[in-house]
Each structure stands twice: as structure tokens, then as C-alpha cells.
Amino acid sequence: MALIDFLYLCPFCGQDPMEGDAESGRCPSCRRSFTPGEGGTRIRVEDEGGVVLEYTARSLSLRLEGYRAGSARPGMGEDAAILQADAWARFAASEEPVRHGGRLLGFFERIGEPLQGVLSLSSDELRFRAMHPAGPRSWSLTDIRSLQAVSASIQITDGSGELAHFHFPSDSSRRWEDALRAAIAASWAIEGREVIEFQPRIVTR
Asked: pTM for this one?
């Protein structure tokens, strides 16, 4: 995951969005800069006065918690989306058998061609509108069975087992994972159930 995907908002002042790329981040509000530190899980933070400290990724993630509730960007249009972004979508079209020496070893999912469009999240559903006339696809939040952030993408599976993979060319997969988790938990709470686990599958009680 790129550094700017992980630090999509500033863990020190809550500025959203941050500036940066795969190897660095910068907060345009408090002027702190972020680069990889020593070891794979540490991040070097330099403030406006030149003071440099290193933090673990976990400690910065915990600092983000207080800001995430307000980090979703409002969408536009009739759906009043909580979050909306350009995305490329791919869907698992079918399962293909894997054979060796005449024996069936298992199956793998054949992913369809990428479709360009807009992904939006509302209080009760996730919706993808492709740019070409393929028609919108939507998923009730309580029908989403798994959720995972992968690099600059997220992927979900629904009640039928279909996999949907969404890649964001200009937004953070971490932002989407956080927003989806919160919206899914809120939808289940309306049903009187609590989400107790998101990985590897969403489990409620």
C-alpha cells in the first residue's frame, strides 16, 4: 500500500486530503512530512521546524481513529453519497477448474475485463456506474460478506459469492475500507446486530 493511501488524512491535525505519493506524504495544513523510517513498519515524521521523530505505523493508525469519522468526502447528485470516486471495476465472471495429471485440484475465479466508472457509497448500499451502457451494479451493505483493501484497491464478495474488485486511480483504498466498515456496521446495527469480525469474512451477532 502506498504511503499516501495509508495516510490519506493527517494523523496530527486531521487535514484531508494529504499530498504525496507511494514513498512520501505531506500535510498542507500543519506542514509535517512523512517518509519511510527504519524497518518496514516505521514512519519518519518531520515537522515544520525540522524536528524529526519516528513512529510505528500502528501508532499513527491509532492517531487517525479520532479523525476518521469525518473523513468521508460527500458525494454529489441525487444519491447523496457518503463517499464517491472514479474507479475501475472488475468482476469474477466464472470459476474455472484447475487440473493436473487428470485430477481436479480445485477452481479459480476468472476475473472479467476492467470497466471504468464511478463508485459511490450511501447509507444502505454500494453502487457502481460504468461509463459505457452496462447498467449500474449495486450491493446492499448487509449483503456484503467480505471486504479487503489491496494496494490501491478494495474487493468485496456478496451473498452469492461473486467477487468485485475496485481500483482507485486518485483516491485511497484505506479511506474506502474505513468508510465501508463504518457503513456496514451501522447498517447491521439498524437490524439489531453487531459486527464482531471483518476479516477474513464479516461476522455478526
From this structure: 0.74
